[in-house]
Amino acid sequence: MRSRLLTVSVVATAAVALLAGCTFSVGLDTAPTVSPEEIENSAAAALEHQTDVRPDIDCGEEPIPVEEGRSVTCLLVDPVAGLEFDVVITFNEVDGDDYFFDIQVADVANNAPVPTAEPGASVPIGDIEALAIQALSSTLDFVPEVTCTGTDVEIAAGVTVDCSYPSPEGEVDAVVTITAFDTSTGRYTIRVD
Fold first, then answer.
1. What pairing do the DSSP bridges indicate for beta strands 64-65 and 84-95?
2. Rounded Cα gap, residues 125 and 151, in angstroms
3. Is 172 part of a structural domain of the chain?
4. Whole-number Å distance between alpha carbons of 120 and 141
5. Is the same domain home to 179 and 96?
6. Global pTM?
7. Helix spans in 52-144 (H)
């Protein structure tokens, strides 16, 4: 799985537990912890600042130890396409109650649509939009909100679909072309221009 590093330095305040009077054993994790909601909100806000889209992030239920060099893997859901990505949050600096972290979002969605269809069949336009988002995300520095015309797309080589997505420079027109269709397996490929 290829990943890209979004250099996002985030500062937040950790709720540090006072550990006076406690006894410790070798191997006991004594790092201060924060709630997963605090990390989820900080990471989502940082990504929203960079992409103008606030993702949903789920880091589980357990308190997260805050320690320099420690990472936590969370699940990011793109609210536009519903695609789910692993996201690794790594604490790169911890200074008392303040901490900074980097966010690394996987390039490939965990639930990416598999481009397959029965011969002569159509797929919902949402499948084409999700495939276009996946294709464009690997070349752009943001996850685009792709919208295509129509409701269903006939799967056959040479079929094109008009799409568009907003970018920092303005609205971008794109054309999704079904470049190949293997009737024996039902797999098809697309190209986004």
1. unpaired
2. 5
3. yes
4. 36
5. no
6. 0.53
7. 125-137
Q: Specify whether 78 is located in the same domain as 130.
A: no
- Measured in degrees and rounded to the nearest 5, phi and psi for residue 111 equal -115, 35
pLDDT at 16: 32
Same domain, residue pair 71 and 134: no
CB 164 within 8 A of CB 91: no
What range does the domain containing 172 cover?
122-192
Is residue 178 domain-shared with residue 146, that is, in the same domain? yes
> 126 and 85: one domain?
no
Whether the Cβ atoms of residue 168 and residue 141 lie closer than 8 Å to each other: no
Check whether residue 88 and residue 128 sit in a common domain: no
Q: Which of 71, 106, 141 is the last residue of a domain?
A: 106
> In terms of C-beta density within 10 A (0-12 exposed, 13-18 middle, 19 or more buried), how is residue 146 classed?
buried
Q: What are phi and psi of 41, to 5 degrees?
A: -65, -40
CA dist 49 and 45 (Å) reads: 6
pLDDT at residue 173, rounded to an integer = 93
* Secondary-structure breakdown of the chain: helix, strand, coil percentages, each rounded to the nearest 5: 15, 40, 45
Averaged pLDDT, groups of 10, the chain, 193 residues long: 42 35 43 90 89 89 92 89 87 87 84 66 85 83 86 86 90 89 79 88
pLDDT of residue 19: 33
According to DSSP, the β-strands at 98-106 and 71-77 are: unpaired
Same domain, 134 and 92: no
